[in-house]
Amino acid sequence: MPKPLLEVKGLKKFFPVTGGVFSRKIGEVKAVNDVSFEVYEREVLGIVGESGCGKSTTGKALLRLIEPTEGEVIFDGVDITKLDDEEMRKKRRDMQIIFQDPYASLNPRHKVEKILGEPLLIHGIGDKEERQKKVRDILEIVGLPGEHANRYPHQFSGGQRQRIGIARALIVNPKLIVCDEPVSALDVSIQSQILNLMEDLQEQFGLTYVFIAHDLSVVRHISHRIGVMYLGKMVELTGNEELYNNPLHPYTKSLLSAVPNPDPDVKKERMILEGDVPSPSNPPSGCAFHTRCPDCMDICKQVRPEFQEYSDNHFVACHLYSEENN
Amino acid sequence: MEMTTPTNKQPMPGPEHQDPQVVQEESISPWKEAFWQLKKNKLAIVGLIIIVFFILVAIFAPILTSNSYQTMNATDRLQGPSAQYWFGTDDLGRDIFTRIVYGARISLMVGFFAVTGALIFGSLLGIVAGYFGRWIDMLISRIFDIMLAFPSILLAIAIVAILGPSLQNALIAIAIINIPIFGRLVRSKVISIREEEYIMAAKAQGMKSGRILFHHVLPNSLAPIIVQATLGFGTAILEAAALGFLGLGAQPPTAEWGRMLSDSRQYIQSAPWTVLFPGFSIMLVVLGFNMIGDGLRDALDPKLKN
Known about the structure:
The complex is a heterodimer of chains A (about 325) and B (about 300).
Chain A: E1 4-19, E2 24-40, E3 44-48, H1 55-61, E4 70-75, E5 78-79, H2 85-91, E6 95-98, H3 112-122, H4 128-141, H5 158-170, E7 176-180, H6 188-205, E8 208-213, H7 216-222, E9 225-230, E10 233-239, H8 240-245, H9 250-257, H10 298-302, E11 308-311, E12 314-316
Parallel strand pairs in A: 3-8, 3-9, 6-7, 7-8
Antiparallel strand pairs in A: 1-2, 1-4, 4-5, 9-10, 10-12, 11-12
Helix pairs in contact in A: 3-4, 4-5, 5-6
Chain B: H1 6-9, H2 20-25, H3 30-40, H4 42-59, H5 61-64, H6 96-132, H7 134-149, H8 152-163, H9 167-194, H10 197-204, H11 209-245, H12 257-264, H13 273-300
Helix pairs in contact in B: 3-13, 4-6, 4-13, 6-7, 6-9, 6-11, 6-13, 7-9, 8-9, 9-11, 10-11, 11-12, 11-13, 12-13
């Protein structure tokens, strides 16, 4: 077993809800509520879940782009939540992010040259000429002509912009890249190009990805292991094949049954959930999923299920699989 | 929408004419693009011509007229426009044309310094309030609110009353009353830019807040500031004229358009040219700045692109 590059322990992010004249705290949104997982070196960990389940917040919190409320993020043996600003700034070289929206994530007033050269500059890598060469090299690596360094972001298409976003994350030779839905803003035909590029880069540079997405087929394509999130909690975490062949948690089962099948003649039994996702500011008692779970038991309404290993490397948080019930 | 593709916007400068491919490869900065947008706007160009005209008049005032703006000719009081006195003379027999020409200096100077002062202090306060937020924002914003609660000309009068009437104090007063206008604008822009994803990206790469502020936040907040500065130029000139009219700005015998209006207002029926020309000059300059300001707003607005 390779050693974990990233260990997340009990990560929580609560956003305060303020109101009244003096902006007092009147409640909180539990966007990420006690999430723990490990990411091994050269591994792609997919995180899926529907909108608002806290997957993006998890990704940003583990880079401290959003300051976590509680929990440890141990990266390369160091708990980064305890680093001061300057130490964290230096650490960022090793942990990068690719954003969802390539239209919003590139500064419209900077040329590509500056967008890609700036990370090198602030980390003191190379002199001016070396940096220029590196920018051109990285552009070629992500499949853009080197002379495009002279252009501005608005002169590129969405897919090309996302390639620049990838190049920006890659240029400082990071160990870990958090990919925050990197293809969901792109056309389907472009998605596969970008996915394949990211896959190639991962193998070529031995990168570790935390790949956040809501599209199950995208995650399946690229991930080694997949974690499923629901309402700020991780409900299931296991290997790619295992998850698709043997989903345990009722939520995972319903998610998988929603994946469209290209063959119109195949009639499959869909598991359709009732109701809506409860508000994360007032999550249900016990298991957060009990309000919509088809297999809800009495215990689910009172006791929060532990996130535990059910079989080898297959973690699940569900009372159906806890020992007392077996 | 063929007109909006970058290639067609290209002005095709000089030798590149033969090979449009080469032109297309050239990078188009957002500022350049805004300039092309501006050039297409006829009204803005008219505004620009008016402003340039008045700037030239102000610079070359001694060449344009051989008269002095304060020489009085008792024999030529309240003369109508003629070959000798193009715009006529006022009640003290001074050449109105000469006074208008020298008045352009005063008005443009007031506009420039008042806007620059308001811009610098307003922007600094706005950036601090917007970027650091919390109690600093509360404090600065409430001060702005208090200043904006007064009608601006009333506040200016109060400030001049405290400092004493003179052109310099009028200029300071106009700068002060314009500070919250710039401050609020910059603050709101900084707050919205701060939340942009490319700012988070800059942070993710490990940039210090100073660099983020001056390389990423500020350049992206500039567009509305430029527009406001241009429009503010016109307002400042108008406010200076109003203070001058009330006798709180430039003191005689300085040729100041607002002052000229008030000094001549009793002759409005018998010698209309004494008020007509200063009034017309104020109107024209303010109109010029407003037209170019409107044009800039359209050119710099990203929503109108594509």
